[in-house]
Amino acid sequence: MPKFHNENIHYDIVGSFLRPERLKRAQQAFDDGQSHKTELQQIQDEEIQDLVKKEVAAGLKFVSDGEFRRSWWHLDTFWGFKGIKKIFVKEGYQFHGVETRKESAQVDGKIAFNPKHPDLEAFQFLYQVTKDLDVVPRQSIPSPAQCYAELVRGEDNIKALNQYYEKQEDLFDDLTKAYHDLILALYDAGCRDIKLDDCTWGMLADKNFWKTMSADAGDIQKLKDLYLDLNNRAIADLPDDLRISTHVCRGNYASTWAASGGYGPVANDLFGKEKVDAFYLEFDTPRSGNFGPLKEVPAGKEVVLGLVTSKEPKLEKPEEIAKRVKEASEYVDFNNLSLSTQCGFASTDEGNHLTEEQQWAKIKLVVDTAKQIWSK
């Protein structure tokens, strides 16, 4: 459970919010060359300030900027590092019946931290907005494993990678150091809560994904070992008062999904060995499997149950949520559990198929239900 003023808070959010229409129009005008960057930034600033007010009014203690400055939940972060550029590709990501925009990230030099990284600048603004409020500003970034997976997505990306890195270990050193430096820069800017968003484990939990990678389970284990090593190296030797969590997702694009499968195939590595303080886990549909794999979560670590879907407006029944929390408590101590939506509401500009009013109704459901469950 996230702690706020050393008290247990059993409700939370994943972080992204639907982009307001005003912000969408401003972004489109900028993309079309009809406005200047400063005009877009001004509207982003104003909309983020308004969002924070709404988060506080909703009773949230851990707040985000809604990812209003991002186009993607992950690619913008990758593009922000030195040595990685934005490219356009032939195919987008394949979701359930939907294909995304055709963009990716490709190495064009040695990877290193950029002191003007957009995530750092975004947090610096959020910190200024929240510094006099009784809340904790959180910064979400995609995991190092997710970045590596993108850099080897397709033959062209692999070819570019090999051009700059003859030895994979040199790539791993540079990538994890760039992440470590970003995290320390965020800490120096006042950040005390960082979440690593990560779809790699969700893909590895999907046996159909295995078929596209290899028929050899040993190869899958090598991937798990690599992802675990990249993530743990990036978050090693950090300040004790910096909370590091991870959110595991199976895809969240325009209310669709990309992968299926319970956590069993990855539980031992993800839960047992990733050195984070908390796991934010998707559990809103049967696609995520049962709670059994949570037995691998070490004692004392937090699990935030994503039992409320952010993909559709229908509100879950509080009594059903309470029942599922009780089931999960058979594997993780009740007091180490919390409640959230299964993902954000807009992992990309497109957003899920809800209205802003429905979005806030979902958050109210999370806050009210959690207070009822853990007040008993």
From TrEMBL:
<dbReference type="Pfam" id="PF01717">
    <property type="entry name" value="Meth_synt_2"/>
</dbReference>
<keyword id="KW-0489">Methyltransferase</keyword>
<dbReference type="GO" id="GO:0003871">
    <property type="term" value="F:5-methyltetrahydropteroyltriglutamate-homocysteine S-methyltransferase activity"/>
</dbReference>
<dbReference type="InterPro" id="IPR038071">
    <property type="entry name" value="UROD/MetE-like_sf"/>
</dbReference>
<feature type="domain" description="Cobalamin-independent methionine synthase MetE C-terminal/archaeal">
    <location>
        <begin position="169"/>
        <end position="371"/>
    </location>
</feature>
<keyword id="KW-0808">Transferase</keyword>
<dbReference type="InterPro" id="IPR002629">
    <property type="entry name" value="Met_Synth_C/arc"/>
</dbReference>
<dbReference type="GO" id="GO:0032259">
    <property type="term" value="P:methylation"/>
</dbReference>
<protein>
    <submittedName>
        <fullName>Methionine synthase II (Cobalamin-independent) (MetE)</fullName>
        <ecNumber>2.1.1.14</ecNumber>
    </submittedName>
</protein>
